[in-house]
Amino acid sequence: MKIIFMGTPQFAVPILEEIAKHHEVVLVVTQPDQYHFRRKEMVFSPVKEWAVANHYPVFQPEKIRIDYQPILDLEVDLIITAAYGQFVGETVLNHPRYKAINIHGSLLPKYRGGAPIQRALMNGEDKTGITIMYMAKKMDAGDILAKEELPILDSDNQDTLFTKLSELAVTMIPRVLSDLEKGLIVPMPQNESEVSYAPNLTKEDEKIDFSKPARQVFNQIRGLSSNPGGYFIIDNQLIKVYNSIVSNRRHQVDSGLIVAIDKQSFDISCGENTCISILELQLPSKNRMSACDFINGQGRKMLQIYKKVGD
User: Which residues contact 157 (CB under 8 A, 6 or more apart)?
Assistant: First the structure.
C-alpha cells in the first residue's frame, strides 16, 4: 500500500520503521521544528530525524486543518497516525482509499485524548494497551480495528511504558494492514458508556500533592517521569522528582514534612499516615541526580527532619 504516516515523538519511530519495511511510505507528516533554548538551535522531531536519515519526504504544517494540500496531491491508500499531535480534518481523513487509522496508547474507549499513557500511570491502572482504530471527527472515537492489552508493573514509568507500547504496536500493525487490505477486519464501534478521557498534562499536574496517600504520589511521579517530571518546592527552589518508592514507614504528623533522611533516600509524609521515599531528583539548572548524591551535597543544608516542603 501507499501510505502517508503522521507522527512526532520517539514512540512513533519504530512503528514508522516497521511500516516502511512492508509498504511504500510516500510522505511523513510531523510537527514543525522547535527551538531548543539550551542548545540554542532548531531541533527536529524524532520522526523527522528518522525520515530525513532514510530519505523520505517530510511535510511539517503549522496547522494541518488549514495547510494540507500536499496530502491531497498524493494518491494514497491509507493514512496512519501515531502520536502526531494535531487534530486532522475530515477532508484529509477521507482522502485515502482506506481512509485513516490511528495507533492509540490505551484500551479505548478508556483514556481518549493526548496523554493516555501518563494518565493511566497516574491513576494507578494495572493494565493498558494499544488500540488501532479508524479516525473520526470526534477525538479517538472511531471504530476499533484491533486492540491488545499490556500489564502495567510497579517498575514501569512513563518512559518504559512508552517503549513497551511502541513495541506492542510494532507487532500489531503488519497484521492489521494485511487484514485491512484483504477486507478481513470487521470494525467494532466503541461503547460510549465506557468512555474516559486523558487530557494533555498541565503545570498543575506536575505539582506533587503530598496530602494524597503515598501510593498515589508514587503513581503521579512515575506518570510524569521523565517528561516533564513532578515537582515540589523547598527553600524557594523547584525540585523535580523522577523516581520514588512507597516507604514502609508510617507517621503521625502533617503531610508534606520530611520525616526521615537515609543514605540512599529521604522520606516525605503523605496522606493516610503513609510516606514516600525520594530516590532521584533534579535541582534548578543542574543534572538529574540520585537522592544519595543530593543528601551528600546541597541536600545537607536543605533537608531537615520535619521541615515542610511546599508547592
Answer: 121, 222, 223, 225, 226, 243
pLDDT band at 311 (very low <50, low <70, confident <90, very high): low
In a domain, 308, yes or no: no
Report d(CA 305, CA 307) in Å as an integer: 5
Looking at residue 261, its pLDDT comes to: 97
Residue in 18, 33, 14 with CA at minimum distance from that of residue 174: 18
> d(Cα 171, Cα 173) in Å, to the nearest integer?
6
Q: Is residue 307 part of a domain?
A: no
Domain finish residue from 194, 227, 242: 194
The sheet carrying 58-59 orders its strands as 58-59, 24-29, 2-7, 78-82, 100-104, 127-134, 144-151
pLDDT at 38: 67
Q: 183: alpha, beta or left, given left = phi > 0 and alpha = psi -120 to 50?
A: left
- Shortest CA distance to 178 belongs to which of 4, 51, 21, 26? 21
**Residue 219 · residue 209 · CB < 8 Å:** no
pLDDT in tens, 261-281: 999 999 999 999 999 999 999
CA distances from 185 to 2, 58, 136, 244 (A): 19, 30, 17, 43
CA dist 107 and 173 (Å) reads: 16
CATH number of the domain that residue 186 is part of: 3.40.50.170
Strand-strand pairing, 34-36 and 78-82: unpaired
C-alpha cell at 160: 518504559
In whole angstroms, what is the distance from residue 274 CA to residue 148 CA?
A: 35
Query: Are 182 and 250 in the same domain?
Result: no
What range defines the domain where residue 264 resides?
A: 203-302
| 185/218 same-domain check | no
